[in-house]
Design goal:
- The complex is a heterodimer of chains A (525) and B (279).
- Chain A is built from 16 helices and no strands.
- With 525 residues, chain A is mainly α.
- Chain A has a single domain, classed as Cytochrome C Oxidase, Chain A (Up-down Bundle), CATH 1.20.210.10.
- Chain B is elongated, with a radius of gyration of 27 Å.
- Chain B has a domain of 153 residues: Cupredoxins -  blue copper proteins (Immunoglobulin-like).
- In chain B, strands 3-2-1-5-8 form a 5-stranded mixed beta sheet, with no helix packed on it. Chain B has a 5-stranded mixed beta sheet with strand order 4-10-9-6-7.
- The N and C termini of chain B lie far apart (81 Å).
- Chain B is built from 5 helices and 10 strands.
- By secondary structure, chain B is α+β, with helices and mostly antiparallel strands.
- Classes of the chains: A mainly alpha (525), B alpha+beta (279).
- The interface between A and B is large, with 104 and 105 residues.
Chain lengths: 525, 279
């Protein structure tokens, strides 16, 4: 991450010094670093918002914040975590690793690459500035449902414009990934030889291009409803508030796969390395990702079973949603089969990947329950849903990203990190994440709705446990930051291969990776 | 480094002890599952939930079991050597694609007939329109003049103010109590028409097994038949984020035996006529 000083020693053509380097760089590694540092900062900020939420929910009664500010916290927590932490982290990893995995010298469109980053930066400046305008930050939930979202104050146009900028940034990032992978693979690197992380990102990029414009269209309609008296979502003018939900979730469901697919790719890199054998069923893994991506377009209305859909619609979305469990199951079983008859060791990246395997499965199984519509009438909009999507996003997507950092950090910095500290970070995170989210299943089933700042006293016990888990989980992440800073500054020299059983082109270049790699394309056999 | 680790170990231990000591004395740890509810539909949904929960638990035990066995048996520290030839197994892969499909279809089929019954609101004997407002409910007994608002009860409303100094535990049914509850007869199919006046709300009483959005400009329908032998008070909340006081617009339903309900409705009708006359 912050490894500027080390890069310079090894670069073939030294980059400019100081701040100018970071403002003008078109180097994929520098841009990757900027994305990752940005994402880490947003992860801490979004975590701070969650901290406020869990502190207020520590016990019944309102102790710390007003309900309105509570709603701003839940809304901004989600927007920051989704668009500021998880997505930019995967883009940062893509920037760093895709060219090195496919043997390309850089991303195909380096200037656009830098432009995407700074668009994202200013999008977030704008979004976070909404805290300081009359009415405060958006408070309608990240789902932005009208008519409620139309009650937002001065933050409204700022949030919409920020979303437009993020969308443009994501689309450009996605175009860059696709062009790079399609055109710049080293000779011999056929698509079905490509590492699974690059594969997962190629498919993610197509998802982004398909759905970000839909979302942009939806929020633009909100904008015209707000300022120009159109009635897209206003029943009194012939519109329909539920239309927005269809548009939103047509984007929103693929969006959850945009967040998780890169982690699927990461886990598919790490489990083979630390089992010391190749991935089981490589082609099935590729087809599974592709099937999940396709299915993600036809399941959106399972987020809205309670809006009053026709019977046939409810049945269709139940069945299509359950189908996703099939390719997802294939992935889980193939990862398990990769472990089978391996020679397994438990370094921090592997620990995070294994935790992903277990805890993502829990989130997947609760997702299966949520897919069944009559039961969903009970689950919908309760803490059971909150538990479900946090299981797939935190020990799912976020653990995947952390596993990637632990896996490739020596390659980025040229130093081994403190393994003991990494183990501590893992065990504290893995324990607290369950203390945090598992009890939320209970209160949800017992009848606690989500997005409420205060609750009936019978929910008090498990909420307190959940809050304790949250504080523990949040504080544990400071170890992660400390470990990264320490590793960037120095440490035991890393070899080119770093791990016992390295596989893939990124492990053939020295650590830290030189400023320019593969200026001459490698031969892949 | 060692000092830091030791400090970490100590602070974790201290944190665990402190949190155990801080636990409240209330014994609601048992509140971990969906209520069975008080209607045929709610019980069917509950049993469906339980079946799925068990299927998922069995799947979890099998997959986690395989992962744990692999992690125990094939550790490098125990001298395991990787079998680098284990790359495919067409039969196995076909099996773990097809078997889940069968399980999933098996899970989905029972939902069909339940859904058909849930959506069938015909044959109801009483229709009540519920309108969501920011932040209270309005109930109208269609075909009569009976109509009233249902707000968060005053005691809860005082206690829920920021730093009110009132212990929520001292308030009866904190946040789940209203000034004027909805009253319905037991043993009768009651149809509820749901709509909203401003933003989207959702009407949810867990004991009835049913939740549906109340959308401005549109009308949604659900129905409920409380068991004849289960008169009582049932509580729920708005379940769709509807603004600042989303957490403070509860739903309370009193289910009364038919005769008592009829008497209550007559009383309300008389009161409504009286109000109309004085206006």
């Amino acid at each position: 991450m912050a490894h500027a000083s080390h890069h310079d020693d090894h670069a073939h053509h030294g980059p400019p010094k100081g701040i100018v380097r970071w403002l003008t760089t078109t180097n994929h590694k520098d841009i990757g670093t900027m994305y990752l540092v940005f994402s880490l900062a947003m992860f801490l900020l979004g975590g701070l918002f969650a901290f406020v939420v869990r502190a207020e929910l520590f016990q019944p009664g309102l102790q710390l914040v007003n309900p309105e500010f509570f709603n701003q916290m839940t809304t901004m927590h989600a927007l920051v975590m989704v668009f500021g932490a998880v997505m930019p982290a995967t883009v940062g990893l893509a920037n760093w690793m895709i060219p090195m995995q496919i043997g390309a010298a850089d991303m195909a469109l380096p200037r656009m690459n830098l432009f995407s980053f700074w668009l994202l930066f200013f999008a977030f400046t704008l979004l976070l500035a909404t805290f300081f305008v009359p009415g405060g930050a958006p408070a309608s939930g990240w789902t932005l449902y009208p008519p409620l979202v139309l009650q937002t104050g001065a933050a409204f146009p700022m949030a919409i414009f920020a979303i437009h900028l993020m969308g443009a940034s994501s689309i450009m990032g996605a175009i860059n990934v696709i062009v790079t992978i399609v055109n710049m693979r080293a000779p011999g690197m056929t698509l079905l030889k490509m590492p699974l992380f690059s594969w997962s990102w190629l498919i993610t990029a197509y998802l982004l291009i398909a759905v970000m414009p839909v979302f942009a269209g939806g929020v633009t309609m909100l904008l015209t409803d707000y300022f120009f008296d159109t009635s897209f979502f206003n029943a009194a003018g012939g519109g329909d508030p539920v239309l927005f939900q269809h548009v939103f979730w047509f984007f929103g469901h693929p969006e959850v796969y945009i967040m998780i697919l890169p982690s699927f790719g990461i886990v598919s890199e790490i489990i083979p390395t630390f089992s010391r054998k190749p991935i089981f069923g490589y082609e099935a893994m590729v087809y599974a990702i592709a099937s999940i991506a396709f299915l993600s377009f036809i399941v959106w209305a399972h987020h809205m079973f309670t809006v009053g859909m026709p019977l046939s619609g409810q049945l269709f979305f139940t069945l299509s949603t359950m189908l996703i469990a099939v390719p997802t199951g294939v992935k889980i079983f193939n990862w398990t089969a990769t472990l089978w008859r391996g020679s397994i060791s438990f370094e921090p990246p592997m620990l995070f990947a294994l935790a992903f395997l277990f805890l993502f499965t829990i989130g997947g199984l609760s997702g299966l329950m949520l897919a069944i519509v009559p039961a969903d009438f009970q689950y919908h909009d309760t803490y059971f849903v909150v538990a479900h999507f946090h299981y797939v996003l935190v020990p799912g997507a976020v653990f995947g990203i952390m596993a990637a950092v632990y896996y490739w950090l020596p390659k980025w910095t040229g130093h081994m990190y403190d393994m003991r500290l990494g183990n501590w970070h893992f065990w504290l995170s893995a324990v607290f994440v369950n203390v945090l989210f598992f009890p939320q299943h209970f209160v949800g089933l017992a009848g606690m709705p989500r997005r409420i700042p205060d609750y009936a006293t019978q929910f008090a016990d498990w909420n307190m446990v959940s809050s304790i888990g949250a504080f523990g989980f949040g504080l544990s992440q400071l170890l992660f930051v400390w470990l990264i800073v320490k590793c960037a500054r120095g440490g035991e020299r890393a070899t080119a291969g770093v791990w016992d059983w390295p596989h893939g082109l990124e492990w053939t270049v020295p650590s830290p990776a030189p400023y320019h790699t593969f200026e001459k394309a490698p031969e892949v056999h | 480094m060692h000092i830091a680790i030791r400090f970490l170990k100590r602070s974790v231990a201290a944190g665990v002890l402190a949190s155990l000591a801080a636990l409240p004395a209330r014994a609601d740890w048992s509140l971990v599952n969906m209520p069975r509810g008080v209607s045929d539909l709610s019980r069917e949904i509950h049993s469906m939930h339980m079946i799925m929960l068990w299927i998922c638990t069995v799947i979890a035990i099998l997959t986690f079991g395989a992962m744990i066995v692999a992690m125990m048996r094939f550790r490098k520290s125990k001298g395991a050597v990787a079998d680098q030839k284990l790359l495919h197994n067409a039969r196995l892969e076909a099996a773990w694609t097809i078997v889940p499909v069968l399980i999933l279809v098996g899970m989905a089929i029972p939902s069909v007939d339940k859904l058909i019954r849930i959506e069938d609101t015909s044959g109801s004997e009483l229709t009540i329109k519920a309108t969501g407002h920011q932040w209270y409910w309005q109930y109208e007994y269609l075909g009569t003049d009976v109509s009233f608002y249902s707000h968060l009860a005053r005691a809860s409303n005082f206690a829920r103010q920021k730093r009110s100094g009132i212990d929520p535990a001292s308030v009866d049914h904190y946040l789940l109590d209203v000034d004027k509850p909805l009253v319905i007869p037991t043993g009768v199919k009651v149809r509820l028409l749901l709509t909203a006046n401003d933003v989207i709300h959702a009407w949810w009483v867990p004991d009835f097994g049913m939740k549906r959005d109340a959308i401005p400009g549109f009308i949604n329908e659900i129905w409920v038949r409380v068991d004849p032998d289960k008169p009582g008070t049932y509580r729920g909340q708005c379940a769709e984020l509807c603004g600042a006081d989303h957490g403070f617009m509860p739903i309370v339903v009193i289910a009364k035996p038919r005769a008592e309900f009829d008497a209550w409705l007559e009383e309300q009708k008389a009161a409504a006529t009286q109000i109309a006359a004085t206006e």
